[in-house]
């Protein structure tokens, strides 16, 4: 069980780091509005309402 918990924690940390890296790159490129984020990531603007 501890191994599974550690794996989930590692996966979660990897996901957070990836989201942060994507957010930094989008911001660096001046892409900050949901419609722009959605277009850059190939997703509907309604799904891109997050702030990284």
General description of the model:
With 52 residues, the chain is mainly alpha-helical. It has one domain (2-48). The protein has helices spanning 2-28, 34-41. The termini are far apart.
Main features:
single chain, 52 residues, mainly alpha
Secondary-structure blueprint of this entry?
Layout: H1 2-28, H2 34-41
Beta content: under 5%
Q: What is the radius of gyration computed over CA atoms, rounded to a whole number of angstroms?
A: 14 Å
Number of domains: 1
Distance between the termini: 32 Å
Low-confidence stretches: none
- Count of DSSP strands: 0
- Helix % is 55-70%
Apparent shape: elongated
Structure described in brief:
This protein has 52 residues and is mostly helical. The protein has helices at 2-28, 34-41. It has one domain.
